[in-house]
Amino acid sequence: xxxxxxxxxxxxxxxxxxxxxxxxxxxxxxxxxxxxxxxxxxxxxxxxxxxxxxxxxxxxxxxxxxxxxxxxxxxxxxxxxxxxxxxxxxxxxxxxxxxxxxxxxxxxxxxx
Length: 112
Fold this sequence. Notes:
About 35% of the residues lie in helices and about 40% in strands. With about 110 residues, the protein is of the alpha+beta class. Helix 1 packs across helix 2.
């Protein structure tokens, strides 16, 4: 809810960047994928950006913008046919794991 001084609830924002950066790092560092053909573990997370908790016309909202760099180690088993492999086979497991972690982050940010 809006602060006491903002009885109309028009616009209010609070910087939650420190918490958000720590939370993103905490969620992404243990990220691993073990879904054929990929086995990988995140080894380092670099997280730059900002996050804000907003009250707009009396309704709570969140806003954030982050640039993430994930370093990982692992193995990929790819069947090569005539010199090519399908990149989608490599991306799908990572997209799913990352989407899950970011969804958790978003829900935690809304709950602040």
